[in-house]
Amino acid sequence: MSNIDITYNEVIDWNHSEYIWVDIRDEVSTTYGIIPGAVCIPPGVFDARKSELSKDKKIVLYCARGIVSVEYAEKLRSEGYDAYSLTGGYYQYLSIKMEEDTANEREKVEQIELSIRKKFHKDIFSKFAKAINEYELVKEHDHIAVCISGGKDSMLMAKLFQELKRHNKFDFELSYLVMDPGYSAENRKLIEQNARLMDIPITIFESDIFDAVDNIEKSPCYICARMRRGHLYKKAKELGCNKIALGHHYDDVIETILMGMLYGAQVQTMMPKLHSTNFEGMELIRPLYLIREDDIKHWRDYNDLHFLQCACHFTDTCSSCRDDGTSNSKRLEIKKLIATLKKGNPYVEANIFRSVENVNLSTVIAYKENGVRHSFLDKYDE
Asked: Which residues are CB-contacts of 168 (< 8 A; sequence separation ≥ 6)?
């Protein structure tokens, strides 16, 4: 290890006032979590903002795995900064924190479950229950495959289903399903550790999806997402399930509406439930449909939880893809647009959501139903 590399334990042995963490991952990656106190300076603006860093402090840079940060640390050193690169990057930090949590596993589980019942009952569990009731997502005798990617949304969804099952108003079954599409051993370990920490009894099955899409140049993320969903349906059906549950939330819904209009030239939304077209008798449900992402982040941070982004072969931080196959860079643009609009209108998010509940067909030039296009001219002279 060169003197530019430094371990997490070496850093925290220093006096806190002597150093500063600098996260150089992209803006999307940092939304999944950072080292507390870190300054976030994405690669695209690093040169413009490096003057913000003090030459009187040790600068500890980290990326996803401690590879890119070496280059940036070397560059800063050449300019007179006392710079270092965190060995193993953010993933190493996650691994250390999870090992610490595992030592207090029972207390952690109780804290997480109590937070859902008390502090976050109104903003999270009540909205989860409302979506299930309003959209009839769970019915008696259902067997639901709760699909867990390893991120904050799907892990929270699993805990909410456990809480719902505890109430047991009617009979239904749950299977907690994790697909390993080719994760590194390190990433799989992080998912398994989180599942133990949260007392989620996961069933893991393997696929070779990452290898299959490695050589695809056009829309690999979209194809990967479609393949993953197909594998989840197939495994769920093998387990006797009739539904799969995915962790898309309220913000995903309103972002999808705007993305469809601005990038797809169509008015559409992410539906709360869908019948599968390829797997007879199977349905997809989205129980987090009414839950805000900020509340999920608040729950995550309140419980000091650390979750994975999907770590694929393309980016290693997966800043370019999501489990619905859409571009995270496009979603980030939409997030920023909504945030800007919200400054002038605090109701803009709710209005976007309700817009697809209040479609007035008499004011629409054309629409499609079951693949058939209809025009306002069809009945104009009637």
From this structure: none
Return the half-sphere exposure (C-beta side, CA atoms, 13 A cut-off) of residue 298: 12
Tell me the DSSP string of 332-349: HHHHHHHHHHHHH-TTHH
Which regions of the chain are under pLDDT 70? 1-2, 214, 217-220, 308-328
Residue 337, CA distances (Å) to 40, 68, 297 in order = 21, 30, 20
If you search the block for the tokens 């229950």, which residue do you land on? 129
pTM listed for this prediction: 0.85
How do residues 322-339 score in pLDDT, each as one tens digit? 444 455 678 889 999 999
CATH topology (fold) of 104-332: Rossmann fold (3.40.50)
Beta bridge pairs of residue 154 = none
DSSP 222: H
Q: How far apart are CA 268 and CA 264, in angstroms?
A: 9
Q: Is 299 exposed, middle or buried (CB count within 10 Å of its CB: 0-12, 13-18, 19+)?
A: buried
Can you spell out the DSSP letters for 168-208?
-SS--EEEEEEEESS--HHHHHHHHHHHHHTT--EEEEE--
Q: What is the pLDDT of residues 311-322, one digit of tens each?
A: 554 444 333 344
Starting at the edge strand found earlier in the chain, the sheet holding 82-86 runs 5-6, 82-86, 58-62, 19-23, 39-40
Answer for the pair 86, 66: CB distance below 8 angstroms, yes or no: yes
Rounded CA gap, 339 and 348, in Å?
9
Distance CA 248, CA 164 (A): 18
Pick the CATH number of 5-97 from 3.30.70.330, 3.40.630.10, 3.30.2350.10, 3.40.250.10: 3.40.250.10
